[in-house]
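REQUEST FORM: STRUCTURE PREDICTION
Request ID: SP-0412
Submitted by: Lab K.M.
Chain count: 1
Length (residues): 141
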Amino acid sequence: MTIDPNKMASITVHLPVRLDEIDYLSIVHASNYLKYMEHARIKLLEQQGVDLLALLKKGIRFVVAEDVINYLHPARYGDVLAIACRLEDLGESTGRIEYSISEQKTGKEILQATTHAVAIDANGKPTLIPPEVREALSRSV
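STATUS: Completed
RESULT:
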Protein backbone atom coordinates (compact mmCIF):
# COMPACT_ATOMS: atom_id res chain seq x y z
CA MET A 1 0.00 0.00 0.00
CA THR A 2 1.30 3.45 -0.88
CA ILE A 3 0.87 6.06 1.82
CA ASP A 4 0.16 9.62 0.73
CA PRO A 5 2.06 11.83 3.24
CA ASN A 6 -0.45 14.62 2.67
CA LYS A 7 -3.21 12.42 4.05
CA MET A 8 -1.46 11.22 7.17
CA ALA A 9 -3.45 11.23 10.39
CA SER A 10 -3.19 14.17 12.80
CA ILE A 11 -4.86 15.44 15.94
CA THR A 12 -4.55 18.26 18.47
CA VAL A 13 -5.51 17.58 22.07
CA HIS A 14 -5.69 20.09 24.91
CA LEU A 15 -4.50 19.35 28.43
CA PRO A 16 -4.20 21.63 31.45
CA VAL A 17 -0.95 21.53 33.38
CA ARG A 18 -1.71 20.01 36.77
CA LEU A 19 -0.04 21.00 40.02
CA ASP A 20 1.52 17.55 40.46
CA GLU A 21 3.31 17.92 37.10
CA ILE A 22 5.53 20.84 38.10
CA ASP A 23 8.93 20.56 39.75
CA TYR A 24 10.73 22.64 42.36
CA LEU A 25 11.43 25.32 39.72
CA SER A 26 7.65 25.77 39.26
CA ILE A 27 7.79 24.50 35.68
CA VAL A 28 6.57 21.25 34.13
CA HIS A 29 9.06 18.49 34.86
CA ALA A 30 10.60 17.20 31.62
CA SER A 31 9.30 13.65 32.12
CA ASN A 32 5.70 14.83 31.88
CA TYR A 33 6.09 15.85 28.25
CA LEU A 34 6.50 12.16 27.38
CA LYS A 35 3.13 11.51 29.03
CA TYR A 36 1.54 14.38 27.09
CA MET A 37 2.97 12.95 23.86
CA GLU A 38 1.73 9.45 24.66
CA HIS A 39 -1.73 10.80 25.46
CA ALA A 40 -1.89 12.56 22.08
CA ARG A 41 -0.52 9.50 20.26
CA ILE A 42 -3.18 7.22 21.79
CA LYS A 43 -5.93 9.75 20.99
CA LEU A 44 -4.65 9.85 17.40
CA LEU A 45 -4.90 6.05 17.11
CA GLU A 46 -8.38 6.07 18.66
CA GLN A 47 -9.51 8.88 16.34
CA GLN A 48 -8.40 6.80 13.36
CA GLY A 49 -10.38 3.80 14.57
CA VAL A 50 -7.42 1.68 15.66
CA ASP A 51 -8.60 -0.80 18.31
CA LEU A 52 -5.63 -1.08 20.65
CA LEU A 53 -7.26 -3.77 22.80
CA ALA A 54 -7.89 -5.94 19.72
CA LEU A 55 -4.24 -5.54 18.72
CA LEU A 56 -3.12 -6.53 22.22
CA LYS A 57 -5.27 -9.67 22.00
CA LYS A 58 -3.50 -10.51 18.71
CA GLY A 59 -0.16 -10.05 20.48
CA ILE A 60 0.72 -6.84 18.62
CA ARG A 61 1.99 -3.82 20.48
CA PHE A 62 3.49 -0.50 19.47
CA VAL A 63 6.59 0.38 21.47
CA VAL A 64 8.66 3.54 21.48
CA ALA A 65 12.11 2.95 20.04
CA GLU A 66 13.25 6.58 20.29
CA ASP A 67 12.01 9.96 21.46
CA VAL A 68 13.79 13.15 20.42
CA ILE A 69 12.65 16.29 22.23
CA ASN A 70 13.67 19.89 21.65
CA TYR A 71 12.57 21.94 24.66
CA LEU A 72 11.94 25.56 23.64
CA HIS A 73 10.14 27.18 26.60
CA PRO A 74 8.87 25.99 29.97
CA ALA A 75 5.22 25.32 30.67
CA ARG A 76 3.77 26.25 34.06
CA TYR A 77 0.91 25.33 36.33
CA GLY A 78 -2.29 26.82 34.95
CA ASP A 79 -1.22 26.69 31.31
CA VAL A 80 -3.42 24.77 28.89
CA LEU A 81 -1.28 22.92 26.39
CA ALA A 82 -2.22 22.24 22.79
CA ILE A 83 -0.49 19.01 21.78
CA ALA A 84 -0.43 18.66 18.00
CA CYS A 85 0.44 15.13 16.91
CA ARG A 86 0.92 13.98 13.31
CA LEU A 87 1.93 10.68 11.79
CA GLU A 88 4.75 11.70 9.44
CA ASP A 89 5.93 8.35 8.12
CA LEU A 90 4.59 4.79 8.12
CA GLY A 91 6.87 1.90 7.25
CA GLU A 92 6.18 -1.83 7.19
CA SER A 93 6.66 -2.15 10.96
CA THR A 94 7.56 1.37 12.06
CA GLY A 95 6.05 4.79 12.33
CA ARG A 96 7.37 8.30 12.94
CA ILE A 97 5.17 10.71 14.86
CA GLU A 98 5.92 14.41 15.18
CA TYR A 99 4.63 16.73 17.88
CA SER A 100 4.43 20.40 18.61
CA ILE A 101 3.29 21.46 22.05
CA SER A 102 2.25 25.07 22.57
CA GLU A 103 0.53 27.12 25.22
CA GLN A 104 -3.06 27.42 24.05
CA LYS A 105 -3.73 31.01 25.10
CA THR A 106 -0.56 32.63 23.73
CA GLY A 107 0.39 30.14 21.03
CA LYS A 108 3.97 30.10 22.36
CA GLU A 109 5.64 26.89 21.25
CA ILE A 110 6.88 24.88 24.24
CA LEU A 111 8.55 21.99 22.44
CA GLN A 112 8.98 20.03 19.24
CA ALA A 113 9.44 16.28 19.35
CA THR A 114 9.60 13.10 17.31
CA THR A 115 8.78 9.53 18.31
CA HIS A 116 9.89 6.47 16.38
CA ALA A 117 7.59 3.55 17.20
CA VAL A 118 7.86 -0.11 16.25
CA ALA A 119 5.18 -2.79 16.02
CA ILE A 120 6.24 -5.90 17.92
CA ASP A 121 4.73 -9.35 18.39
CA ALA A 122 4.13 -11.22 21.65
CA ASN A 123 7.79 -12.33 21.65
CA GLY A 124 9.07 -8.75 21.41
CA LYS A 125 10.19 -9.11 17.80
CA PRO A 126 9.39 -6.51 15.14
CA THR A 127 6.32 -7.45 13.13
CA LEU A 128 4.37 -6.02 10.22
CA ILE A 129 1.72 -3.42 10.98
CA PRO A 130 -1.60 -5.12 10.13
CA PRO A 131 -3.18 -3.94 6.85
CA GLU A 132 -6.32 -2.64 8.59
CA VAL A 133 -4.18 -0.49 10.90
CA ARG A 134 -2.12 0.83 7.98
CA GLU A 135 -5.36 1.69 6.17
CA ALA A 136 -6.79 3.46 9.23
CA LEU A 137 -3.61 5.48 9.76
CA SER A 138 -3.31 6.52 6.12
CA ARG A 139 -6.65 8.34 5.93
CA SER A 140 -7.42 11.83 7.13
CA VAL A 141 -10.27 12.33 9.57
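NOTES: The two ends are 19 Å apart (CA to CA).
Reviewed by: T.R.
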